[in-house]
């Protein structure tokens, strides 16, 4: 293992209170400036407590400079070749991408790459393919006889000219497609001689097919090419970890093999987190059993936070963690409040309402279980569309995670409308400790044990605007919260550690 590999593994493992930042939103301006913005602000993001950063897909999409990155065209083109009407991607050129990664590494931030393997779009030519039309609502059920369609399944990448890989994708590399060029109609077709992978989600009968040309990850030549690409990408871009897109649509057996092989080939730890979009924590647990070397985003918790924000107070906060991954498997749960797919107007839109977002972020950032992921749009806003305002309290909560959210945790999730928790702090982080109380309805109060180490000390309200309190001799304190609000209290001596937190947004915003 080389020096760079050792550094990568240290970045992945030697972190107290890790924090992942999703460093993009859906409707960012397609001006190819994002890699430069991240490079300029790498040290600043590290100072905010960001230990790892999830970058958007870095390879060329079928919509060229306007492609967010999920309409995958050429995974070897990182903004280097003139394809799809552009050399740079939406986020910049290959050189700018590599420079951003290097700047983040220099600041001590791990880089998590977005890996989208389940579909391709934007082929150069159609091919005549024999295929069976299937019911879009149940992909197991044929709705017609085998027929010939014209599918956009030929990918030759003429702008790249064979650089890095001379692999050509044709219809045999895919299971199916959604378009017949001859008739100009959409649908779902299963190619003759192919079958949907059985190790996928059973929504729509079998959810192997998602969109575009569905990659057949069971085909030996495809598996070999994806293995070659994975090693090339990780080593070329000096990647530390992976975010795996839409894993419910790819056979779990593929990633169970591909990830360990990639780690062995590169000599890197490559922690991976998958996106498995489901309310059902049972499905997430089954996936983690099948692919034990990964984590998953806690989608059930996101839905609980979304529901609480829309309930008008008619939700039982004491049951907030029931049926969540962070409760069932905290070591492999990546918690989040919002992401690019949940923004207003997106296909999976389930936006947490703004009044509840400070409480939602307090829940994922200040507690000990799970690895929290902060969304770019919540931290810096989405000025391009105005659909998400920046969460004013978020910089402060991130600072508290780094400086104060340490030591044993004590929960008081014992009432439907007012709940709370406290962290005692520890000797390794002088001045640490905090307590949070949240309400989904009326103002109230909660008695919390904050630790005997704080007996007789004054704690101040840094979120919520309440009067200071004094911790009792028994380490218990009563804390107030406003209607539908959040209160966070910290030891008075810790207050100077939080100074300047309000500058987070201004510093990064000035780079846009």
From TrEMBL:
User: What residue stretches are annotated with the Glycosyl hydrolase family 13 catalytic domain?
Assistant: 18-406
Membrane spanning residue stretches: none
Say yes or no: keyword Calcium present.
yes
Single GO term (MF): hydrolase activity, hydrolyzing O-glycosyl compounds
The active site of this protein is located at 245, 275
Q: Which UniProt keywords apply?
A: Calcium, Carbohydrate metabolism, Glycosidase, Hydrolase, Metal-binding
Is Hydrolase among the key words of this record? yes
Report residues binding Ca(2+) 3: 313, 417, 440
Record family assignment: Belongs to the glycosyl hydrolase 13 family.
What is the name listed in the Swiss-Prot or TrEMBL entry for this protein?
Alpha-amylase
């Amino acid at each position: 293992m080389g020096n760079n590999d050792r550094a990568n593994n240290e970045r992945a493992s030697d972190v107290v209170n890790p924090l992942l930042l999703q460093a993009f939103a859906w409707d960012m301006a397609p001006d190819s400036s994002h890699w430069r913005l991240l490079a300029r602000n790498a040290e600043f993001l590290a100072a905010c407590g960001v230990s790892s950063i999830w970058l958007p897909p870095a390879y060329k999409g079928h919509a060229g400079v306007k492609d967010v990155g999920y309409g995958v065209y050429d995974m070897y083109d990182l903004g280097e070749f003139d394809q799809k009407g552009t050399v740079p991607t939406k986020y910049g050129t290959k050189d700018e991408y590599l420079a951003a990664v290097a700047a983040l590494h220099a600041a001590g931030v791990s880089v998590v790459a977005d890996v989208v393997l389940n579909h391709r779009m934007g082929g150069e030519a159609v091919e005549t393919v024999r295929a069976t039309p299937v019911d879009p609502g149940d992909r197991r059920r044929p709705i017609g006889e085998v027929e010939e369609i014209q599918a956009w399944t030929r990918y030759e990448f003429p702008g790249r000219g064979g650089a890095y890989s001379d692999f050509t994708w044709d219809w045999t590399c895919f299971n199916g497609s959604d378009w017949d060029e001859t008739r100009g109609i959409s649908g779902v077709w299963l190619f003759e001689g192919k079958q949907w992978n059985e190790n996928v989600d059973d929504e729509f009968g079998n959810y192997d097919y998602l969109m575009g040309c569905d990659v057949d990850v069971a085909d030996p030549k495809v598996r070999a090419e994806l293995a070659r690409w994975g090693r090339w990408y990780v080593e070329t871009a000096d990647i530390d970890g992976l975010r795996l897109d839409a894993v419910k649509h790819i056979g779990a057996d593929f990633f169970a093999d591909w990830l360990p092989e990639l780690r062995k080939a590169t000599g890197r730890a490559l922690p991976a987190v998958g996106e498995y979009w489901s309310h059902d924590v049972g499905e997430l647990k089954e996936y983690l059993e099948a692919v034990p070397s990964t984590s998953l985003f806690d989608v059930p918790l996101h839905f609980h936070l979304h529901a609480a924000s829309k309930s008008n107070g008619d939700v039982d906060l004491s049951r907030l963690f029931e049926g969540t991954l962070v409760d069932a498997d905290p070591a492999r749960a990546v918690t989040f409040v919002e992401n690019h797919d949940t923004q207003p107007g997106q296909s999976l839109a389930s936006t947490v309402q703004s009044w509840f977002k400070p409480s939602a972020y307090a829940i994922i950032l200040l507690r000990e279980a799970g690895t929290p992921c902060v969304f770019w749009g919540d931290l810096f806003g989405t000025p391009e569309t105005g659909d998400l305002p920046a969460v004013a309290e978020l910089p402060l909560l991130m600072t508290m995670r780094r400086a104060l959210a340490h030591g044993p945790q004590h929960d008081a999730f014992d009432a439907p409308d007012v709940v709370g928790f406290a962290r005692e702090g520890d000797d390794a982080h002088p001045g640490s400790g905090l307590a949070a109380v949240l309400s989904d309805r009326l103002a109230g109060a909660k008695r919390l044990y904050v630790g005997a180490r704080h007996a007789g000390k004054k704690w101040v309200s840094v979120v919520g605007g309440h009067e200071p309190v004094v911790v009792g001799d028994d380490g218990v304190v009563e804390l107030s919260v406003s209607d539908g609000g959040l209160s966070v209290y910290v030891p008075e001596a810790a207050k100077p550690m939080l100074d300047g937190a309000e500058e987070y947004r201004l510093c990064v915003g000035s780079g846009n």
